[in-house]
Structure prediction request, 163 residues.
Amino acid sequence: MNLTQFQFQDAVTRGKNLLAELKKDYPELRLYPVFCRFGPGSGQCGLTTDPLVILEEFPEMLLVSPEVERLGRLLRQYRKAQKLALPTLSEIEKELNEAMRLCHAPHIPAFYCGDVNIEFRTGVLKYEPLRRLQQDHRLPPGLNTVGNIRVIAGPLEFLYRHA
Prediction:
């Protein structure tokens, strides 16, 4: 199932609320959230609801039109040109501004892939608290295994349905 922007925001809110609860009980892990997917269309980015940031950092998370895909490519080209101080920066910026206008940025039409996970990463890796966290009843069963360093809050679709 793919999510609308409002469904996506509900799922992210549920993920943030869960993170806040878990941070209280496992402060030593310094948890922080990311979006991630493994396998086909894999990628990751920080937890954000800004579609332009997602389009730039993890475009596989969105189902968009060819025009919006082009906008994503231009965003990445622009960042790279900025970082490297390329002489083509002003040309890319003109194309980017036109693409943003055509796509009605920042309110781009998109659907969010419901199979993308919200994952909680550890800022400090401590195995005993991590093991307890992976067995915490507030996390969905079957997604977290002891011996792995991943803590998966669940796919967006699951989080939306349980918001």
Remarks:
- Strands lie at 2-3, 31-37, 43-46, 62-63, 111-113, 117-122, 152-155.
- The longest helix spans residues 5-25.
- The longest strand covers residues 31-37.
- Residues 143 and 152 are 6 Å apart (CA to CA).
